[in-house]
Every structure is written in C-alpha cells, then in structure tokens.
Amino acid sequence: MAHPATDPITTPRSGSALDVAEYFAPQRTSARELPDVSPLVKNLTIGVLEVLAGVRDVDQLARWLGEDAYRALVTRANLSARARSARGVAAVRPAHTILSERLCEPADGVVEAVVIVSGPARTRAVAMRFEGWDGRWRANSVALL
Asked: Distance of alpha carbon 49 from its chain centroid, rounded?
C-alpha cells in the first residue's frame, strides 16, 4: 500500500482549475512541428467539392475542419442537397482538376491557401485558412467562390 503522503490519489494537486483547463484545452502547434500542409490542401479541396456535389458525407472531413468551418460546410451541403432535390438531379461525382495552388504563411502555425479548380461547368476558387492545433493542421475557414 502506498504511503498517504506519496499516494497520487490523496496528494493535494498544485494549480487551480484554470491551470487544469488550460492544460487540457486545445494547444497551438508551431509549423515546424507539423507535416507539410500541401497534400491536405489538395485533398480537402477535392473533399469539399465532393461534399457539395452530394457524393461524400461531411463527417468524413470533420477531423480536418474547425467547428465553424464544419458547421458552414454542413449548412452549404444541405442547401446543395435541397437544390438538387428540387431540380430532380441525382448526385454525381465531379471531375475536377487542380489548376494552381497558392500558399502563404502569415504567422507561425498558420497557413492560408487558395486553390483554383477547373470543373466541367466552370472554374472555381477554394480559399482556406489552416492553423496548427494539437499537433495537426485544422481548417478554421473554408470558402468556395
């Protein structure tokens, strides 16, 4: 049996509840501790276009999206599904080609990206902002233009 003075269960803990909350809260991650963001930019772009086309579920992208970006994508996907339903059009996997990709790093652990994508009907731009959280990239903003 452990001695009461050294028993981790009975030993008083130092630090306040605020310190504990900060310790378990999402932690910023520096860019040098993160993998290359370029493959994620390309894959997330195609994933977002497939979600809006109705051939991919938004939940498949949830681990790479921040909360606000996820909610916005769910809302836009629902509107796209309703529009397809009203027109009586079936969901079809889009055939997109990435024409160009532009990345910039305005701060450490932050990457802003714009991807130009050519589709069968038109050319679009997808703008995203990635931030390093808990050792991985998360898209906090996604805009399809």
From this structure: 14
Nearest to 68 by CA among 135, 141, 144, 143: 141
The topology (CATH level 3) of 28-144 is Nuclear Transport Factor 2; Chain: A, (3.10.450)
Q: What is the pLDDT of residues 27-72, one digit of tens each?
A: 788 888 899 999 999 999 999 999 999 999 999 999 999 999 999 9
Residue 88 Cα distances to 80, 81, 82, 139, angstroms: 12, 10, 10, 32
Q: Where are the domains of the chain?
A: 28-144
Tally Cβ neighbours within 10 Å of residue 48. 26
- pTM to 2 decimal places: 0.79
